[in-house]
Amino acid sequence: MIENAEQAIAWIHSLTRPGLRVEHDTQKRILALLESLGHPEKKLPPVIHVTGTNGKGSVSRFSQAILTASGFKTGLYISPFIIKFNERIEIDGQYISDSDLTVYTQRIADYYTNQTEFEVITAIALLYFSESHLDALVIEVGIGGLWDSTNVIDATVAVITSVGMDHMDILGDTLAKIAYQKVGIVKKTTKALLYGRLPSEAKEVVEKQAQDLQVPYGEIDSKLKVSRGYYQRYNAALAWAVVKIYLHNILPNERFLEIIDFWTTDKLIKFINHVSWPARMEIISKNPLIIVDGAHNPQGLAILTDSLLREYGDREQLIVFGHLEKKKISVRNFDNLPFAKVFPVNWESYRQTAESDHYEEWHKQLDELLEKIDNEKQMIVVTGSLYFVSQARIYLKNKLQKK
Questions:
Q1: Which segments constitute the Mur ligase central domain (predicted)?
Q2: How far apart are CA 147 and CA 90, in angstroms?
Q3: Among the CATH numbers 3.30.300.20, 3.40.1410.10, 3.40.50.300, 3.40.1190.10, which is that of 5-272?
Q4: Which residues contact 232 (CB under 8 A, 6 or more apart)?
Q5: Contact 49/195 with Cβ under 8 angstroms?
């Protein structure tokens, strides 16, 4: 019997068994679970379904925030979490409560057979959302799209933020193969597909699939001049386009035009600048200047370094980089920053050995940087694996509060 949120989260995490090979090209496990629950995935409001190698979290968050501010009770499902497990499932910016998490996890556990951790979390979210009387729902894909656990839903609007080389062991080793997996969230029932700037190899695959399914599609290559990191200008513009297409498909024309008229460009930019989104070019301190960003693959690091060069090119960047070897990234990814000093952390070694000294090593590294930093000429950047960034973010915030 699951009696509290701590027990619920512990049970969920226990479902990941290192070394156990899991089939990635099937949804039979989650579909069996959802059938036992009465198919909550068929009782949802119109859905915005977001995938992409990078940017999907930001586009999802911005879309939800705009819809909520427009008067729609809006659910949001994201992964992974940065601060607290509950943030993966929320409504109008409010995380699922500990009591609801406990209740819904127990309901899932009653029917559990052999599902993976992500399948269980997705089932919890879908059941919770199906009973929350929502007006709108934004769902972020976990990995890929075609075989992702979230793809049991039928999206009203499908979104592909970007396509790059990541999760190749699951999605394929070319951009075309990865694009094919991501465009798998588009179905005949989808009303529209929107995508950001894509490499030509990926764009061809995406557009062909949309054409074959006779789904209207379009590329969004514009920017909204938000002040949240240069690359967020593209994510913000894509989110706004997605919301407009979504509302156009679900609302009477008069109500749709009323909302569009309300959101002037200046008002929209001001609003998005205040949307909270941890570990996405997030400034956690201004003096000293400290930024945390979960850029964990080559494309993400390219975007991050471009933003740092554009916005903080006159500073020396002290970069603490917690990397995973399988992501094919290294200190060389920061070569275009002329004033950068990179301090790598082998996060994979820490994750594999709980007693590893690496944990203390990166603590000491951050402590030393905080003690010696020149507030006028230098800045600290923490990046790499989202799990590493999450841990470092907590440590830094606690450290700064004690000063």
A1: 50-191
A2: 24
A3: 3.40.1190.10
A4: 58, 226, 280, 281
A5: no
Structure tokens given for 257: 């035009």
| Global pTM value | 0.90
Domain residue spans in the chain?
Answer: 5-272, 282-401
Token couple for 335: 């070569």
Encoded amino acid at 50, one letter: V
Measure the CA–CA gap between 49 and 217, rounded to whole angstroms.
14
5-272 with 282-401: one CATH topology?
no
**pLDDT tens per residue across span 149-161:** 999 999 999 999 9
CATH architecture of 282-401: Alpha-Beta Complex (3.90)
